[in-house]
Amino acid sequence: MENKGRILIVEDEKSMREVLKILLEEEGYETISASDGQDGIMKIQEDIFDVVITDIKMPRADGFEVLKKVKEISPASIVIMITAFGTTESTIEAMKLGAYDYIHKPFKIDEIRLIINKAFEKKRLSEEISVLREKVQTTYRIENIIGKSPRMQELFRLIPKVAQSSSTVLITGESGCGKELVAAALHNLSTRRNKNFVTINCATFPEGLLETELFGHVKGSFTGAVQNKEGLFEIADQGTILLDEVAEMPLSLQPKLLRVLENGIFRRVGGVADIAVDVRVISATNRNLVDAIAEGRFREDLFYRLNVIPLHMPPLRERPEDIPLLLNHFFRKYSGGTKQLSSDALRILMRYPWKGNVRELENMVERVVLLTEGTTILPEDLPEEFFSVVRKGIGLPDVGDEGVDLEKIIEEIEKNYLLKALAKSNGSKTDAAKLLNLTFRSFRHRLYKYGIK
User: Which of 131, 192, 413, 430 qualifies as a FRET site for 300, CA 20 to 30 Å off?
Assistant: First the structure.
């Protein structure tokens, strides 16, 4: 029989140890046994195991010490806790320390089989994520932009080509989706990379100040102009300038920008001499410039000069397959890889609409890493707003002053999934059980419980 993986059993009760060993070896796993916590810790120090099953109350060292040692020496190993004296507090503590699951004695054979199979499935997924992390550094990444979705891969294909040109680029997309990262990538991959890359947000300056920021001014041109000042176009000469939120540029200033784009010439505020520059102009906006033209707020000729090469950053909700990649990246950035998401927490974050896009996701990770003590981020560690939005999305009621009937809600959800699985499998109980990751016996019991025929 093929070896399906290596399991360490840490259990001071000899009969329980032997039962687990026989059961798991019949399933095709290689097992090693330890008679108490200290013996288990010694074996963990000597070898690597895919899964560690440990009792909690044991002589010399308890299960929590075993769990901590596993996470210290082999973080990729999965730990399952077993006890006859479990409490809610000990369950929470085990999960926060990184345990995968928590089983109460006595347990059923089918239950332990299911949990072990799920544990190895999680191990396989974790290994795939490790490979994915490597790909994030290559295939799924360009500069600091991350994504494996088809739309992001197409963007990755275009950026190096566009970078070699000096044509103007208009980057569109919602706030927080990473337009400035695209602009930086275009500069860093271009022949201008050794020259200045300057950025300005057109929405943050009043009209008069924006003009002097872009084009500079001469001494005495207005009150407070006590000396000549270079503008950003002069500073960016031979390099690149990013005009962020370009739709907010005042209409009276737009002809001066158009002149620079057409012939590379401008004048400082209050000046009479033309200044020539060679600047690659990239602009970005979260607004629809065609609508702005129709409303008389943006010049049509300027739009065509800016929009020579259009690039669009899709919002995060339209590329959900990129969410796990981004979460992994930001958890490494803010925790150094010491913290990770539980599968339940990931499911919640995958259903969240992310109106603030990548910026909102990054802020959430930074906040959770700072405020969470455990190594595994559980659903209850996430900010409350994530729960309220997801609850509304799946029709779950909030807990009001009158309370809710939790058992009834859970029963309705369970019945719903049983019926959906039966429908999808054309009435086959065996196939429906597999769809719900249940044993046939457990699935049949639930059908009987709810009177489903």
Answer: 192
